[in-house]
Amino acid sequence: MKKKIAIETIAAELETFRSHDVDATILEKIRETDLGDVNTRMGITINDLHVLSAVPQDGSAKIAEIVDSVPLTQGAVSKVLSKLTTKGLVSKFHQPNNKKDTFVQLTTAGEKVNQLHHEYHQVEAVKLEKLAAGYSKGELETIASFLAAINKIRQ
């Protein structure tokens, strides 16, 4: 295959990958659950899922800690958390001894959504491992390096 054709093929495959909403599957699973009312299930976005994932399952986190762990701005995280609070997926509160920082914790519904999201990514990881088994270590390193370079130029 000529180099130009290989580059065009890679570009086409990346476009297919981008246009295929990888997380659409998990969003559909959430919408199909009996989780609360329809308002809770509908309108959840990928960013919502990523912010939910940043909240510890067994405790709480400061909003600043969540901001540090997701690729979103402080303002975007605040908007997402307000939306998730309205949907009943998280609750916000202040510690009695710390009125400055706002803390966030998952509700029961938020834990369920987080679990569905986590299970989805576990299934995807198994699929990737099976796919990767057909490539040598060197080939995988080349692919990883190439994809990292693509992501770097897209920033």
From TrEMBL:
Residues 1-152 form the HTH marR-type domain. The keyword Nucleotide-binding does not apply. It comes from the Bacteria. The keyword Nucleotidyltransferase does not apply. One of its GO terms (molecular function) is DNA-binding transcription factor activity. Keywords: DNA-binding, Transcription, Transcription regulation. This is DNA-binding transcriptional repressor MarR. It comes from Lentilactobacillus parabuchneri.
